[in-house]
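Please complete every field before forwarding. Incomplete forms are returned to the sender.

SECTION A: IDENTIFIERS
Entry label: holo-477
Bound molecule: pyridoxal-5'-phosphate
Molecule representation: SMILES string

SECTION B: INPUTS
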Amino acid sequence: MFLEMESKDIFRQAQQHAFGYADGVRERHVFPTPEAIADLEQFTERLPGSIGNAGDVIEQLHRYGSPASVAQTGGRYFGFVNGGTLPVSLAARWLGDFWDQNSALHVMSPVAAKLEEITEGWLRELLGLPEQVVAGFVSGTSMSIFCGLAAARYRIFQNKNWDINQRGFRGAPPVRIITGRHAHGTVVKAISLLGFGTDNIEWIDCDDQGRIIPSALPELDDSTILILQAGNVSSGAFDPLEEICDRASKAKAWVHVDGAFGLWAAASSELAHLTRGMGKANSFSVDAHKTLNTPYDSGIVLCSDKEALINALQASGSYISYSENRDGMLLTPEMSRRARVIELWAALKYLGKAGVDELITQLHKRALQIAEELRAENFTILNDVVFNQVLVACDNDTLTNQTMSHIQASGECWAGGANWKGRSVIRVSVCSWATTKEDISRTTRAFVAARDKAIGDQRVASVLGEMPADGTDLNGQ
Ligand SMILES: *Cc1c(COP(=O)(O)O)cnc(C)c1O
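SECTION C: PREDICTED COMPLEX
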C-alpha cells in the first residue's frame, strides 16, 4: 500500500526537477510572475480521501510550486536579510534527510551529537569566543535570542537566590531590561515571551546609523539584562560592543548580543574590528541560514554560562537518559529536533577559516560595489556601508516607492522597502555567495530602468492632472 523506500523513482523524479530548477534559477524572474502566483490556486483542493500516487504529488509540487517560489539562490535576491545556499550544505542536508535523525539525545543519534560537538568548537574558534562558550542549535535567531535571554533570566534571578523556574515572577526581585531603540522585533518578542513585559524595557537612544550611544546608557548593575546588536537589520551598523561590553562586565550585567547576520563579521579579517570586545558578553544569537548560506532552519545560541542555559531550557522525563555525551536537547527548547547541524557542519568543513573569511568579506565588497554604482547613477545612499546592508533612496519618497515597485515587478532582482529616519528606502541586503560583480551591475541597471519608468509614470499622471511631475503630492504631503 505505501510506497517503499527501495522504490527510488520518486527521488529521481524530485532530483530531476531540483536540478532543472537550479539550472534555470539565475535567469528566471526573481520574484514569481503574477501568473505563477495565480496558479497556486491549483493547491486549493479538498484533503484527498485515500492514498494517491506519489509521483503525482511530486509532479504537482514542481509544476505549480517551483514557478511560485522566490529565486533566492540565483544571486540577485536582496530582500530582507535572507541569504542563499551553499551547494555542499544543501547536498549534506539531502543525505542527512535520508537518515531522518532526531538530535534530542546522544542515544538517538550519535552522529548528530558528534557533529554538534565539533561544530560548537569550530564556531568558538571562528567567532573568537571564550573556551567556556557552548552552542545550542535552534531554528533561527528568534529562538536563539529567546534562549539567550532565558539563560540571562535564570542566572540573574539565581544570583538573588530566586529560582525563577519554580517561583515565577510573583514577588520576584526586580530585573532591568535595557536595549537600543533599534533593537530587532524578535528581541522585543523574546522579552514578552519571557514575561518581562515590554513596558519595562529601558530604551536607549541611538545615533544616525542606529548604534546605541554609550553615553546614553544608564548605570548598569547585576540586575541588568542588556541586549546589544551586531548588525542593524536596516543599516548593518554595529553597536560599540567593546566599550559597552567592558562597562557591563564590570557592573556584572548580563549582555546578550543579537548578531543574527552580523556576528559573522568576527570571521572576516577585514571586518572583525566591528565585533571587537564582544567576547565579554554572556550570550549571542546568530543565524547560519543568513550570512553563512546554509539552508533555512539554522540558528545558533551561544552562551558562556552553560549551567544557566541548561537550567533555563531543561525538560525532564523518566524515560530520558542523559549520557556522558552531548545531549543536544539540554541546550535547546525543543525535545525532538532534526539534525540541522549537518548542513552547518558541512558548510564550515568545506569553507574552512579562509573560506568563511572570503564569503563574508565578499558580501561586504559587493555591498560597497552596489552603493558606489547607485551613487554614480544619482541614487542617495543613506547609511555607511559597514557590512552588507545598503539603504537606497530617490529624490522623494513617492519616487522611491514607485521605483521599488517597478524593481520588484521587473523580475531582474528583488529588494524590499523600509522606513529609515522618516524616509522611504529600498533596502538592499547582499547576503548570498552566488551574487557576482555582474549581478550587482545588472541590478544597478534594473534600478535605473525602474526609476526611469517611475519618472515616466509620473509624467503621464501629471499630464492627466493627477499629480505634479515631482510626485510629491501622491500621499497628500
Ligand atoms: C533576521 C534577524 C533576526 C531574526 O532571525 P530569524 O532567524 O529570522 O528568526 C533577529 N535579529 C536580527 C538583527 C535579524 O537580522
